[in-house]
Protein: FAD-binding oxidoreductase
Organism: Acidimicrobium ferrooxidans
Amino acid sequence: MICIIGAGIMGACAALHLVEGGARDVIVIDASEPLSGTTPAGAGFVARFGADHNRRLGASTIPLQDYGLAFYRHLHESGADLEYAGNGNLVLALTQTSLDTLADGILAHPQAAPGTRLLDSDGVTEVMLGTVDPAAVVGGVYMPEGIQLTTALAQQEIVARLEDAGVQFHWRTPATGVRIVDGAVTGVETNEGTIDASTIVFAAGTWTQTLLESVDRRLPLIPMVATRFVSEPAGLSPLMATVQCLELNLWLRELQGAFSWGGSFAYRLLSALTEDGLEFEYGRPVSSVLLDAQHAHQEKIAEVFPALSGRATAETIQGIPVYTVDGGLYVGAVPGIEGLWALAGDNESGITHAPGMGKLVAQLIMEETPFTDPTPFRLDRVDPAAYPDEASMVASMAEDRIANVAKLN
Ligand SMILES: Cc1cc2nc3c(=O)[nH]c(=O)nc-3n(C[C@H](O)[C@H](O)[C@H](O)COP(=O)(O)OP(=O)(O)OC[C@H]3O[C@@H](n4cnc5c(N)ncnc54)[C@H](O)[C@@H]3O)c2cc1C
């Protein structure tokens, strides 16, 4: 029996690839209700983010991004309603200095996708179909392969396919520990008794650290609460590109004619929020401090995206991406415990990477040749002892685009 712990996009993708690879007797347990974790908060940007020297993900992640792009395109083409669109991703620059940095990092990247190109403000108007005030920007770098989708729909679709394949889901069943005999896993301990399993995958998002602690292991992980707003309909074109802007600390896209947007102005370390009284167990947090911070920021963003000015908010949703000290992802065996595997450290890009991470862990479990080198994703690549507390982990994020947020806390 293979037991996946966590039915978010990571656990669902791991289960799907195990089943597609021929594994039998796969079950998935989740502490909470369907769609209650971080995944539905995800904004649904998917692109080749590793092909950018300004990000810490590194080029080893590009095969996972390519696989994720192909995976979602295939789901979409096979008839799943994901609110999928392939309009590319634009990294916007408000100043020439920023445009030069983007050009160095993305255009000059040896693995830049064909068609990656520099845009001036007229070019920005073209791919943004009027959503950006051209006078407020210098230009940007356009990544043509970028897609967008609705994350909850993707998660739901994968779970439905797994159910059709006979995979059992146990909802409201928190794993509390792992039974280990002679150094190998034999079962998952839950509030409803122990489930026999000779292979276990931790895919519990921000809660994976607690599961690792239950087997006396630790990874240097930094949970961060992030916020997404969906505006009232604003008449945006469904053909506009997804957008990111370093100077505004912003990501933004169209969703059913409205703005779906957020950025590090409304992010904060989970530890800082819980110290300030945020109560949180499973599910998604609600931090009014961050909601206020994002509301306060809206008119600044509207200086570049005029239709956002004064626009009411229809929905707010928060979730907890988990950052790593080296900016990389974790996919692999939990050292020293036979049969135990983990997917962790999504770096706020788990929608993009879950298909590839799920495929890779499935191939490692099934002892197949992995589609990409698993070495950069190993759990033992960083010594957790080098990071005795969160402050030391945050300090290691100095190069990260959200480092200032982490420092502020
Ligand atoms: C505002 C925001 C915007 C984002 N935008 C993007 C984006 O544009 N593109 C992108 O690629 N990524 C994005 N992300 C990141 C992405 O959403 C996450 O990386 C991804 O959803 C993480 O999926 P997961 O399966 O690891 O976690 P989750 O979805 O949280 O799933 C973990 C599951 O484990 C369960 N669980 C926890 N503990 C236990 C236990 N003890 N026993 C059993 N089950 C347990 C939980 O109930 C939960 O269902 C964004 C995130 C946020 C918050």
Summary: The two ends are 43 Å apart (CA to CA). The longest strand covers residues 221-231.
